[in-house]
Design goal:
Oligomer: single chain
Number of helices: 19
Radius of gyration: 24 Å
Distance between the termini: 32 Å
CATH topology of the domain at 386-633: Dipeptide-binding Protein, domain 3
CATH architecture of the domain at 386-633: Roll
CATH class of the domain at 386-633: Alpha Beta
Shape: globular
Largest sheet: 8 strands, mixed
Strand content: 15-25%
Structural class: alpha+beta
Number of strands: 24
Length: 663
């Protein structure tokens, strides 16, 4: 999320991540003719319920979740972080939805049924009748088609639309702008796109509208893909597949449905999007209000097309300070709080019920009461589908405030500081994984060797990895040539990074103390290597942090990824050519090397062939080290024992409150 670039309240990687992160489900097959469709069931399967605990909620009608950040946007076309996606998942709905905890099984939602043509190219969805939006308007197939068309046309690499662009337009065509100019010169540049040839703009839009066609009389929506795409159903089950009311969206400033105007909405920043702070879905909860910096409040939809939710109200509060969150949990004023990994021992002392994950069955075992007198329940041991890693920006934007003087003078860094491979390797060898895993995760994590997760094509447990080695770090810094004079820094008589030093600011989102610790580990080790090396850690509010990353203003940063679909393409694409590659301003030549490999990987039909291709990607990524891969943790997740009906799906952005209830 995810690429989602997930809020991933990522401080909770090894502790209390809102969605229990997992693995063990078979990887979605690559997009090839004849690929088996993911399983479809009639009703979602819920996580097994613990026995009654004797503990009760202060207010069983209301669920209060206290988190470290807040949404960037509530517009499904743009939202690509978990704080916003959590709200969207509860207010809007998709054509299909995940079946309980499974990442590869689905139930009908706004589509009653669907068919796939024999050639794997055409999906026909029968749209459910009698569903109303929260404002009382009827949902129609035209609303479905408009929602998908709008998302694709809004495009841009800061959002999730690349996930839909490739199935509809072809492998490697991951943004609508490439249909106007296939060189990529218009990507993420609304002004340049708006000035493109009018006929080319219209043709691109018409390709979108021809691929997604509504038939209101027949009650269907037909989607025609550019090639068979195995992960298509998992892709549309996520929040960017949400259905919006076309009339309401247009009335509130969204795309008007005309192919003559779509360019005016391309890559719109969330802060300029009129749909960022308002919602009108079909889901079990209705949007009540969002007081930015404080809370988002949802209320039950009593006219929901299924049985109404058991909860009447959901309050999602933003509180960055751990002590305040913990006090609220202790007092019963919160039903969930984000728990930093380094603070989870405080909540461990409150655990009266323990639920361990069983890798053999890929589900949690029956919960065991360990102390009848204590109020919390712990879910533990599920491998996560989430990661946080350390990313270098190769060419920092001139607007950055985090590069000091902006010069190689000991008081800053030049904007292209991290374009030097030896600087990147020097930083990589300066990170201490043992300290990180021990101090942040209390040992409940392992160093991640490659981008692919275990069980996916591309995973290599024995791949070469960077290790904590200050001698090698010193060697790399002395080989650097930051001033581009052709002389290694250790031998440069006129001075280079080794003798001049540097100063920069490393960014993390406020309240995410595990990300803060990552930068502090590196800062301390760099100062040990050379007293002229200075890194200051700076915390930013979550929306500001995201905007800064997207503007390529952070010299280096720690961020996270929650997978969108359980397929290696969803890990390699954002890191190598998509979401993070754009934020890191990776050079075109390097991205072309990555793109060639990934296009072959996503198109391959044989698992062994995919493995070999992604191993090629692994080797290049390791050698170039645009990112330092950190660690994969297992779940360590807390709820009060009176909370029931939880669906612990590892791919959910956070919670799906429809099934929740409280004793």
């Amino acid at each position: 999320m995810r690429k989602l670039f997930a809020l991933l309240s990522l401080l909770v990687l090894a502790s209390m991540i809102l969605s229990a992160c997992g693995g063990g489900a078979p990887a979605t097959q690559p997009p090839v003719p004849g690929t088996d469709e993911p399983a479809v069931t009639d009703e979602p399967a819920a996580t097994d319920e613990p026995a009654p605990s004797g503990f009760t909620s202060k207010d069983p009608t209301t669920f209060v979740s206290v988190q470290i950040g807040e949404p960037e946007t509530l517009d499904p076309a743009l939202a690509y972080e978990t704080a916003g996606a959590e709200v969207i998942q509860n207010v809007y709905e998709t054509l299909i939805f995940y079946d309980g905890e499974a990442t590869d099984k689905f139930v009908p939602m706004l589509a009653e049924s669907w068919e796939l043509s024999d050639d794997g190219l055409v999906y026909t969805f029968q749209i459910r009748e009698g569903v109303k939006f929260h404002d009382g308007a009827d949902m129609t197939p035209s609303d479905v088609a408009y929602s998908y068309q709008r998302g694709l046309l809004y495009g841009g690499y800061s959002g999730p639309q690349w996930l839909l662009a490739e199935p509809f337009f072809g492998v490697g065509v991951d943004d609508i702008s490439l249909l106007v100019d296939d060189t990529g010169a218009l990507a993420d540049d609304p002004a340049a796109l708006g000035g493109a040839d009018a006929e080319a703009l219209k043709a691109a839009c018409e390709k979108v509208t021809a691929a997604i066609v509504a038939d209101d009389a027949a009650g269907t929506v037909t989607m025609t893909l550019a090639q068979p795409w195995g992960p298509f159903l998992p892709t549309i089950a996520q929040t960017w597949g949400s259905v919006m009311d076309q009339d309401w969206t247009v009335a509130n400033g969204g795309w008007d449905g005309s192919c003559d105007t779509w360019q005016n909405f391309y890559a719109v920043p969330s802060e300029s999007d009129p749909l960022t702070t308002i919602m009108n879905g079909t889901g079990p909860f209705m949007f009540d209000h969002w007081t930015q910096g404080e809370e988002v409040v949802l209320v039950r939809n009593d006219n929901y097309w299924r049985e109404p939710a058991k909860l009447e109200r959901v309050v999602i509060k933003s509180v960055e300070e751990w002590g305040t969150r913990f006090t609220m949990l202790q007092a019963g004023d919160a039903d969930y709080v984000d728990v930093p990994a380094e603070n989870r021992s405080q909540v461990d002392e409150m655990v009266g019920e323990r639920c361990e994950f069983d890798l053999a069955t890929n589900t949690y075992k029956e919960c065991e009461v360990v102390d009848e007198s204590l109020p919390m329940r712990l879910y533990i041991g599920r491998p996560q589908l989430i990661s946080q890693d350390l990313f270098f920006t190769f060419n920092v934007a001139e607007t950055s405030n985090y590069v000091g003087s902006g010069q190689l003078d000991g008081n800053g860094i030049p904007l292209d500081f991290f374009s030097d491979i030896h600087v990147r390797k020097g930083f990589a060898y300066s990170f201490d994984w043992d300290v990180y895993i021990s101090d942040v995760f209390e040992g409940e994590a392992v160093q991640q060797p490659v981008l692919a997760r275990a069980g996916m094509p591309g995973y290599q447990a024995d791949a070469p990895v960077y290790t904590f080695d200050l001698d090698k770090a010193t060697e790399e810094f002395k080989l650097a040539d930051v001033d581009h004079d052709g002389i290694p820094a250790g031998d440069d008589p006129e001075g280079d990074v080794w003798t001049v030093g540097f100063r920069l600011q490393a960014l993390y989102n406020q309240g995410n103390t595990s990300r803060q610790v990552i930068s502090e580990i590196i800062a301390a080790n760099l100062a040990t290597i050379n007293e002229l090396f200075a890194v200051e850690t700076v915390g930013l509010p979550w929306p500001t942090f995201l905007r800064t990353l997207r503007a390529s203003e952070a010299p280096y940063f720690t961020s996270g990824w929650l997978e969108d679909i359980h397929d290696p393409h969803n890990w390699y694409q954002p890191y190598m050519v998509g979401t993070y590659a754009a934020r890191q301003a990776l050079p075109d030549e390097l991205m072309e090397q990555f793109r060639d490999i990934l296009n072959r990987g996503v198109s391959a039909t044989d698992p062994a062939e995919r493995q070999a291709i992604y191993e090629e990607a692994n080797a290049l990524y390791y050698e170039q080290v645009p990112t330092v891969l950190l660690a994969t943790a297992t779940s360590h997740q807390f709820y009060p024992r009176y909370v029931k009906g939880i669906i612990l799906n590892p791919i959910f952005p956070n919670e799906y409150y429809y099934t929740f209830y409280e004793e």
